[in-house]
């Protein structure tokens, strides 16, 4: 069931969204070659708890799927060909030239914020750097469509059209989602689709929009270890950006916008 958030609920989601953006700002300051992904995760958990939140992802497991091991970390840290759900590890070292997707959720005041950014580590191959830039553009083009009266797949089509115009692939089996008091709510938000299809958007819907775009021909992300981390089918790099937004009449409200972006 899709829920319409009240203005009181949206106020609370502003708090969780702001907390989430601050974590990713902190990661941007701290991430560097030589760090392990577990070091990033440790920093993030301490930061979230010090600021009155709880990590949304830690011990998360999809409802109705008892075979999935609960997620063991605060962040998803995915490097290069890893699309999503990279599990932090003391042996996984971040290196010069990597691109690193960090996905973070914060539960605060009874509601979740969910956001992701892909970071460039040192001197990155220009072609890969372009992928990251275009993926971020896809996110904001999708958000532009998240206004009352549009259809859900107007978001999807805007993302797909921009990505494919550069010859990139859209990961089709990983999607955005509704969000609120639960981390994952209805509806799923795919990153591909036809304009003017899907449910009609209403003011107060809360969505996590998250394009995952790859350089190669991958249409799906495939499991590497049978549980969490998912990689491109052909081993080519993938980038990922995400914001939690509220559908509005004129312009979507971004809950997880960094304070520096609000200026």
UniProtKB/TrEMBL annotation:
Residues 12-248 form the Peptidase M24 domain. A divalent metal cation 1 binds at residues 103, 114, 242. Transmembrane segments: none annotated. GO terms for molecular function: initiator methionyl aminopeptidase activity; metal ion binding; metalloaminopeptidase activity. The keyword Cell membrane does not apply. A divalent metal cation 2 binds at residues 114, 177, 210, 242. GO terms for biological process: proteolysis. GO terms for cellular component: cytosol. Its EC number is 3.4.11.18. Removes the N-terminal methionine from nascent proteins. The N-terminal methionine is often cleaved when the second residue in the primary sequence is small and uncharged (Met-Ala-, Cys, Gly, Pro, Ser, Thr, or Val). Requires deformylation of the N(alpha)-formylated initiator methionine before it can be hydrolyzed. Monomer. This is Methionine aminopeptidase. It comes from Prosthecochloris aestuarii (strain DSM 271 / SK 413). The gene is map.
């Amino acid at each position: 069931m899709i829920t319409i958030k009240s203005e009181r609920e949206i106020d609370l989601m502003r708090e969780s969204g702001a907390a989430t953006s601050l974590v990713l700002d902190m990661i941007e300051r701290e991430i560097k070659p030589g760090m392990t992904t577990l070091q990033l995760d440790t920093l993030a958990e301490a930061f979230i708890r010090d600021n009155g939140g709880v990590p949304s992802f830690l011990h998360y497991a999809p409802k109705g799927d008892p075979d999935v091991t609960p997620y063991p970390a605060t962040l998803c840290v995915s490097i290069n060909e890893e699309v999503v759900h990279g599990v932090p590890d003391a042996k996984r070292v971040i290196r010069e030239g990597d691109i690193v997707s960090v996905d973070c959720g914060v539960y605060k005041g009874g509601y979740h914020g969910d956001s992701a950014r892909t970071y460039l580590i040192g001197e990155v191959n220009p072609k890969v750097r372009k992928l990251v830039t275009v993926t971020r553009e896809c996110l904001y083009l999708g958000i532009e469509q998240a206004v009352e009266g549009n259809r859900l797949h107007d978001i999807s089509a805007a993302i797909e059209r921009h990505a494919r115009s550069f010859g990139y692939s859209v990961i089709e089996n990983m999607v955005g989602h509704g969000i609120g008091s639960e981390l994952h709510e209805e509806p799923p938000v795919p990153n591909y689709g036809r304009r003017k299809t899907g449910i009609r958007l209403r003011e107060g819907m809360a969505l996590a929009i998250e394009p995952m775009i790859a350089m190669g021909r991958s249409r799906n992300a495939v499991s590497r270890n049978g549980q969490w981390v998912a990689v491109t089918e052909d081993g080519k790099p993938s980038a990922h950006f995400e914001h939690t937004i509220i559908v509005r009449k004129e312009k979507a409200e971004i809950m997880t916008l960094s304070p520096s972006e609000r200026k």
